[in-house]
Amino acid sequence: MSLNRFMSQAISSWMSAEGPDSDIVLSSRVRLARNLNEFTFSTLYSSEEASRILKTIEERVLTGGPGSLGKLELLKMEELQPLQKRVLIEKHLISPQLAKDSSSGACLLSENEEVSIMINEEDHIRIQCLFPAFQLAEALDMANKVDDWMEEQVNYAFDEKLGYLTSCPTNVGTGLRASVMMHLPALVLTQQINRIIPAINQLGLVVRGIYGEGSEALGNIFQISNQMTLGKSEQDIVEDLKSVVSQLISQERSAREALAKTANIQLEDRVFRSLGTLANSRIIETKEAARCLSDVRLGIDMGFIKNVSKTILNELMILTQPGFLQQYAGGPLRPNERDIRRATLIRERLKMEE
After folding, report:
1. Which numeric CATH code is attached to 30-173?
2. What is the domain partition of the chain in residue ranges?
3. Is the per-residue pLDDT at 306 higher than 50?
4. For residue 47, with 0-12 CB atoms within 10 Å meaning exposed, 13-18 middle and 19 or more buried, which class applies?
5. 352 is annotated as contributing to ligand binding
6. Average confidence (pLDDT) over 314-322
7. Helical (H) or strand (E) element with 119
8. 22 a known binding residue?
């Protein structure tokens, strides 16, 4: 497995596969924060310690993953070009912090890209498992398997009362962050999302944009995740999130049904106008592309559009990001050049459907 493979394929298997409630839930993620007992936390460690942590993990972990996971590919941040790091961020395989802050940072990736283990990010180790659609329990099961396997290789920082010790106090305990990526266009169109988000926050969950903290909800895509990691078991955290997500799925479907009854022709017109924009534009910016892709995906899910794959939102939301556009171009592009290339790529992708 080479770096070129991770760079060239826009859609990881976890984003292209079908799964439960895939019309609304795009993906499920579980992340576990862990630290090595014999080293200082990343907030205080020296660059020499960071290098030793990476070397320790290389020596003990690179023999292979648990079960059918296979051999993991090690990508060192200092060996990657800025554009390559940006592509990995756009694919949700590494965090912006890992790409930006850590000269001794690295990432272990499984071949199918369902498992990503970040090294020397905010914590020494961050295990991330990504599954298609609404499969939080499956993502937790895989994360636990990887975690158990890692714990056989290294000595975790753990306290009998507090649980796993982490750089940030909000992660102490289970160290678990679970999240789902949801497409909620009907709740946005009916403006119900404005009252739903504060209600979700009151339940101890947080709503973010497509790339997590500080990012915008482009294309009506939201990430819903837990905030508390202490005082609850991993299973309880995941079950609480599943319960809220199930309610959101029901509310989104009800909003879609209401739109179909009260504004069907207006909604159909909006969907096909967006499809026409994508199919014919010569220049298109990121936000407009995301909005139009969201409309088209809604049109596919509601049966207005028959001849376009429902995975197109997943695929083109990644392919049309600045990093991927420049990766395919073979080098840096000015903003206007990216907008032109984005429009060309979308037109070509839609022609493939025909």
Report:
1. 3.30.590.10
2. 30-173, 253-352
3. yes
4. exposed
5. no
6. 85
7. strand 115-119
8. no
